[in-house]
């Protein structure tokens, strides 16, 4: 006959076993949650899509950053489109893009138009650049003062011989008016006067490089990142002596055509827009900036 004490001992053992099994099951759940959290498979994963549009100067930087960013975040899509600073800013004003790329600051009229459209532009300086004034490598001219440069682009001078060079007509090349570089050069060099009427207008920086490489009498201006052996960059004198567009001179701001490069967003960025801008501004992103040929924000 089974004693009452034996039955009591069996019951106690069963209760202890249930408690132990529950405890181990709890540990397993905690470990699984921890593993999930460490793997990043949560709502914190970077995903979604944004459009970045505008400056052809900023374009190579943004393309390189977007490519690496999407490799690290395969669920995120960052589409980068050129067209000029004015095109990107107009797209931001119209609410068509998350980020406008610009090689100049927004005009007061653009900011007003944006605000009238319910857009609050916020500026982000993401890098520095230098505008290089370039000629064909066969051109003996290797330096120009700002006054001489202005005389070329306002039409006062039309032959290189007038500047101590060859007896050869000058082909002055400029970007189209939607380009931020066009506006910056007009402000800094032409002092807001008009470009010469016979200036050769090119829609993209690459076209300027190609034309100058083929035309011994041509002169143009391009972002530092577009420099290669097919053109020669001139030393410029804005009143403090001739200074070459070297990385050291641009970083120190001694070169007279050093300038910041911008992103513009509607208000302070959040979500994927913030993630991407933070990536561009991170040490990794600033290394990409240097690799492309621009200069980190100091």
UniProtKB/TrEMBL annotation:
| The keyword Signal is annotated on this UniProt entry | yes
Q: Which Gene3D superfamilies match?
A: Periplasmic binding protein-like II (3.40.190.10)
Tell me the superkingdom of the source.
Answer: Archaea
A Pfam family hit: PBP_like_2
One example of the protein's molecular function in GO is: phosphate ion binding
Xref: SUPFAM superfamilies: Periplasmic binding protein-like II
Alphabetized UniProt keyword annotations: Signal, Transport
Domain PBP positions: 42-283
The protein's matches in NCBIfam families, at most eight in alphabetical order, are given as: ptsS_2
Protein name as catalogued = Phosphate ABC transporter substrate-binding protein
């Amino acid at each position: 006959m089974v004693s009452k004490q034996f039955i009591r001992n069996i019951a106690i053992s069963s209760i202890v076993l249930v408690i132990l099994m529950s405890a181990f099951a709890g540990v397993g759940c905690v470990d699984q949650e921890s593993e999930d959290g460490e793997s990043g498979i949560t709502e914190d994963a970077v995903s979604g899509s944004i459009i970045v549009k505008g400056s052809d100067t900023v374009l190579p930087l943004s393309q390189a950053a977007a490519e690496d960013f999407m490799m690290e975040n395969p669920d995120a899509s960052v589409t980068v489109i050129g067209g000029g600073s004015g095109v990107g800013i107009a797209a931001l004003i119209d609410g068509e893009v998350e980020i406008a790329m610009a090689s100049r600051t927004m005009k007061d009229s653009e900011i007003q138009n944006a605000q009238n459209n319910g857009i609050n532009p916020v500026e982000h300086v993401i890098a520095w650049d230098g505008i290089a004034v370039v000629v064909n490598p066969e051109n003996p001219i290797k330096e120009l003062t700002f006054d001489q440069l202005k005389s070329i682009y306002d039409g006062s001078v039309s032959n290189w011989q007038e500047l101590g060079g060859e007896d050869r007509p000058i082909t002055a090349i400029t970007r189209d008016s939607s380009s931020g570089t066009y506006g910056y050069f007009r402000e800094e060099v032409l002092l807001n006067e008009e470009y010469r009427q016979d200036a050769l207008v090119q829609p993209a920086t690459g076209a300027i490089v190609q034309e100058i490489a083929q035309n011994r009498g041509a002169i143009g201006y391009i972002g530092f990142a577009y420099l290669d052996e097919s053109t020669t960059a001139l030393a410029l004198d804005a009143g403090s002596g001739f200074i070459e567009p070297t990385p050291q001179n641009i970083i120190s701001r001694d070169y007279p055509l050093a300038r910041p490069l911008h992103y513009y967003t509607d208000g302070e960025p959040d979500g994927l827009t913030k993630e991407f801008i933070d990536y561009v501004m991170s040490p990794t992103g600033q290394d990409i900036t240097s690799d492309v040929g621009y200069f980190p924000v100091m």
